[in-house]
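Form 7-S
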Amino acid sequence: MHPRPVFQRAWEVIDAALEPRLACREYVGLLHLAFEQVCEDALADRLQAILDRGGVPSLAELRAEFSKPPDVEIPSITIIHHDLSEYDQLFSDPTWSNTEEILV
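Output:
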């Protein structure tokens, strides 16, 4: 269920350090962070460093470190609204006078 062994180790440390509901929230938050920011490799390395020094991973600190705005520039889109009266002109054309032909 853990993406890497370091995540399992992080869960064990978090679970031992926090009240069960909070521990679950913290760990699921770490998994979500890895997914949302596409940073599983970097987060795993960071978790390893925290655990190696005997620390308890903190979702708030790791979220601040790994959450970043996307590097995507949103393009400007111009929407052209067509004049619907053009359709009225089309249907008023004598060559389109037979509606049975249109529906076939």
